[in-house]
Amino acid sequence: MRKILVLGTGGTIAGTAASASDNVGYQAAQVGVQHLLQGVPALAGWQLQAEQVAQIDSKDMDFAVWVALAQRCAHWLAQEDVGGIVITHGTDTMEETAFFLQSVLAPSKPVVLTGAMRPSTSAAPDGPQNLADALAVAAAPGARGVCVVFAGTVHGPRDVAKAHNYRLDAFTSGDAGPLAHVEEGRLRQLREWSAGEALRTVDSLRPPADWPRVEIVLNHAGAGGSMVRASVADGVRGLVVAGTGNGTLHHALEDALLRAQEAGVAVRRTTRCAQGVVIETAQDKLQAVPLSPVKARIALILALMH
Length: 306
Ligand code: SIN
Hints:
It is a single chain. By secondary structure, the protein is of the alpha/beta class. It has 2 domains: 2-189, Rossmann fold, CATH 3.40.50.1170; 212-304, Rossmann fold. The protein is 25% helix and 24% strand. The strands form 3 sheets. An 8-stranded mixed sheet has the order 2-1-3-4-5-6-9-10, sandwiched between helices. Strands 11-12-13-14 form a 4-stranded parallel sheet, with helices on both faces. The longest helix has 15 residues, at 63-77. The N and C termini lie far apart (40 Å). Residues 10-12, 28, 57-59, 90-92, 115, 117 line the site of succinic acid.
């Protein structure tokens, strides 16, 4: 019998409110992952095992929880009788955790993140269906890599982003499109599963307190260099700039970033546009990265750990 590990980290899926009609005034991360599983029908021929790795609102996600989660995933993925992992997670930073885990695990088994937009006490919670769909993906033959399953859609770790603060179908894969849909527990696959090499191994991750600090700065009308200078004075090792359009920068911000780069700070250029990625040009003075700003930051942190 194959096993699916369900790792709990908190979020709205584990949230509670005082009233069943309240879908926004709730406390996230209150209900244990074992309890969440009680609302989901068991999969025929699969055994579920739950483990609480953290119990947080994902706005508070930090490097220590990421390291613990990556270590637990690596541990369970190495067990032959484990077919896949489901992670219950807050929606606010789910795309970052998905990208981080793919970057350090690149697993040949499925690691599926899911959550909810409504708390567990809601009159019509979305968590149980999302969890059931996530389990179906974790048990699906051929599934591999880290993905996010939400509102019946399977998103890859590179493209997934939270695009709405309230709707139940809160995630998008942008113009890349989703990997698959889950319909009545069955997968309708549209694209290949995420594959490729890990950027780093879990064992090579430094202790959370030693992770290089990388900040994100934003281009906008009237942007200047003060945030960059403050970050450099504060000892950052890297800066990711979310530029306008194709990663364009106000000249004052660009000047400050070039000075930071000369001083040894690693600088990466992305776009603040919700869709598309920066396209490099021959005139680039700052390296462009074809990732969203938050994911470019994770890639740079992992690169700077060397
Ligand atoms: C969180 O990200 O932990 C709270 C919000 C959510 O899960 O939707």
